[in-house]
Amino acid sequence: MASEPARPPGHKRQKDCCQRGAASLSRAPFCGSASSGFSPSLRASSGRAGPVQPGVEVFVGGVPGGASRVELRDLFEVAVPGVVMKVALMKQFAFIHLHDEAAAERAIQKLNGHLLHCHRVVVEFSRPRPTHTVKTFVGNVSAASISGELRVLFQEFRPVIECHIMKGAWG
Fold first, then answer.
1. What pLDDT was estimated at residue 163?
2. Helix, strand, coil proportions of the chain in percent (round to 5)?
3. How far is CA 58 from CA 2, 62, 90, 97, 100, in A?
């Protein structure tokens, strides 16, 4: 029987953490992907709040709740070393500022679809929000609702550019 390759401390095989469900995710911070074979280290981050830095911004969607800014920085540093300028993490998404467009393209190619905490993340070029738009949050929406229903309701008042129903632990 072939032996398994050595894994970093705390690393779980993809099927171990992804098949056991959410309870095991806190013990399995990084699943990696079948092709990557790397795990980010946890080192101090130099990401700071402040003015937007020059460079290229990449959007990361589907970021699991247990992921940290440091973890995202390390993941991108392994994929595209030396080009991460800033990491801005929000709930379920992040913006990563990279040094140049070539680095952003390499990061997208290497990390789009990557498993983080057993969730596939989407990595793509950031797109600016359309001008002259307003983002509105509507709470207490039934879990059975679909975005098309909300879109029809709001179209009565103004054109709707985007409509998303967030599904998650909160609703």
1. 86
2. 25, 15, 60
3. 40, 13, 14, 6, 11
Burial class (CB in 10 A: 0-12, 13-18, 19+), 58: buried
Element (H, E) at 27: none
User: At 125, is the secondary structure helix, strand, or coil?
Assistant: strand
Specify whether the CB–CB gap between 107 and 82 falls below 8 A. no
Q: Note the pLDDT of residue 145.
A: 87
Residue 154: both structure tokens together:
């709001």
Give the three-state DSSP class for 89.
Answer: strand
CB 44 within 8 A of CB 70: yes
pLDDT in tens, 38-71: 333 322 333 334 454 578 999 999 999 999 999 9
What are the tens digits of pLDDT across the range 6-39? 444 444 444 445 544 433 323 334 454 333 333 3
